[in-house]
Amino acid sequence: MTDGYDPVPYPSLCHPQTHPDWLRVLGLLFGVEPTPAPVERARILELGCACGGNLLPMAEHLPASRFVGIDRSRTQIDRAQADAQALGLDNLELHVADILELDPATLGRFDYIICHGVFSWVSRPVQDRILALLPALLEPRGLAVVSYNVYPGCHAREMVRQLMKYRTRGVASPTLQLAAARTVLDFVTNAVAARREHAGVTEPEAYSLALAREREVVRRVPDAYLFHEHLEPDNAPLYFHEFIGRVGAVNDGAGLGYVCDASLDTMVARDLAPATLTELAKLAEATDDPLAVEQYLDFVRNRELRVSVLSRGDSRRARQIQPAALPGLRFAMHGQVHCDDPTQLLASEAPVSFQILSSPDAKLSIGASDPLTKAALVELCAVWPTSVGFEQLERSARGRLATAGHDSTTPTREQLVASLIECMVRNAVVARCWEPPIGAASSARPRISAFNRRMAGRDGWLAALEHRPFVLEPTLAHLVPLLDGTRDHDALLDALAGLVETGDLTPRQDGEPIRDPAALRAALAEFLRASLRSLAQLPALMGDPVSASES
Ligand SMILES: C[S@@+](CC[C@H](N)C(=O)[O-])C[C@H]1O[C@@H](n2cnc3c(N)ncnc32)[C@H](O)[C@@H]1O
C-alpha cells in the first residue's frame, strides 16, 4: 500500500491537547459520567498516528497503560516501530491499516481515542467511518478527541490552496510541487501588490491583505506541513455547527455527544469587549442551539482549527465547567511574581500580578486580589514544575497567609475555586489528574526520557513531561543523550570534557575557545548547572529511577 505520507512523512510531534490525562481533566470539569478512566491504567488508540511522536512519549511515561497506533503509511509506522523497539516499549502496538477497513471487533474498546490532524485531510467516506467507529470503539466511560479545519478561518487558506493546486496539477515530484507552490504564491502576492501600486490604489484591500498574510504563514511552515495541508488531495474544512451536526447524526443521534473544546480559553470570551459579549448573548438567546455561542465565537475570531472532545451518546455531560470537580484535580503554574519576599506580598491588601512564563513570549500576566488566591498562586509558582492537589494547595495557601500575619480563615474555598477556574480559562494554570514523573535539577543522577534521548540527535521535536513539544537548543544536543540516569554530576562533567577533547563541544569565553584546564572545567560545570536547570523547568528531567531495571 503506498501513501502520500510515505515519500513526505509528517513532522512527528506530541499534541498536549490530546493527552489522555488532559481529556480526563476536561471530562471531569464538564461532568462526564461515567467518569473517564485514570490514565495510569487505560487503553488508548490513535487513528493516524504517523511516526508516533504523540504516542511514544505517552507510552514511555504510562507503562501500565496499553496503546495502539494505526496509520496507513508503512514508512511512518516502520519508523515508529523502530523507535518503540529501541525504547523497549512493550505497551504499544502499531499497525499499518486503513481506517476504512478497521474492524472494531478485533480492536476491542478504548478509554481514549485520539484522531488528530486526520479528519479534514481524508475523503468523506473516511470521515464518516471515523465518526462511526468512535462509539463502536469507545468504552462507556471513554472520550475521543478529534481535530479538524474550520471556516471561516480556512477560507483564506483555501484560496491559496486552490492557487497552489492549480499550479502543481500534473507535477508528480513532491519536491517540484513544493517549490512551485511556494513560488506561485510569491508571484501572485507580488503581482497583486504591483498592480495596486501601478493603479495608485492606497486604501487597504481584503484580497491583497489576505494573500500577504497567508504568504507569511507559508514561509514559516516546513515543507512536510505545506505538502499535507495545502497540496493534500483532500482538505475539507467545515463550520463548527456542521461538524456538530455530523457528530449528532451518528447512530441517529445515539452515537456521540460533544463535550467541550480541548482548549478551554477558546470556549470563553475573555478576549471580547463587554459590548460584544452582550450582543453575543442576545444572538445566542435567539436560537435554541446551546452551541451557538461557540459558533459565533468562531465567526468573531476567524477560527481555523478546532480540537473537539467527544463522548459516547449515552454518557452524561454538562454544558458548563462544574466547580465541584476542582477539589479532585491537581494544579500547576509556570509563573513568577516580581517580589523578593512573597510573605510581604501576602501581608498587603494590594493586588498582585503574576507573569505566566509558559505563555508564548511570557506575555501573559494574571492579576489576583483575593488573599487566598494570591497565596495559592505564590505556592504554585514556588513548586513548579510539580503540581499540587486542591486540598494540599488550599492548606498551603492558608498556611502562607497565616505566616504573613493575614487572616487565613475568612477567605472562602468557593473564591479559590472560582479563581482557579478563571486562571485555567486564561491558560495561566493547568489542571492534571496524573502527575508526570518529574525530577529536579539537583537529582543525583539526572535523567531525561529515553524518547527525548533518542530524538536529541534528530534535529526534531522532543516532548516535555507535560506532553508539550519543544525544540532542543543546539548546545544541549550533546548533553541530553548523556542524561540516562547512570551518571552523577562528576561523571557528566567527565563526559562533557571528553566531548571537548573530540572537538564536539567548544566552550568559549569572549568568543574564544577556553584552553586553560581549570577555567574549562569551571565553564563546563556552569554549563551543566544551567542546562539542568532549564531542562528541569521545562519540565523534561525525570525523577530518579525507581528500580535498577528501569531504562
Ligand atoms: C496530517 S497527518 C497527522 C499525523 C498526526 N496525527 C499529527 O497530528 O501530527 C495524517 C495522518 O493520517 C494518516 N491517514 C490518512 N488517511 C488514513 C486512512 N484512511 N487510514 C489510516 N491512516 C490514514 C496519514 O498517513 C498521516 O500519517
From TrEMBL:
Transmembrane segments: none annotated. InterPro entries: CFA/CMAS (IPR050723), Methyltranfer_dom (IPR025714), MeTrfase_reg_dom_prd (IPR018773), SAM-dependent_MTases_sf (IPR029063), WHD_PKMT (IPR048976). Residues 223-311 form the Methyltransferase regulatory domain. CDD domains: AdoMet_MTases (cd02440). Residues 445-537 form the PKMT C-terminal winged helix domain. It holds the Pfam family Methyltransf_31. Residues 42-158 form the Methyltransferase domain. This is tRNA (Guanine-N(7)-)-methyltransferase.
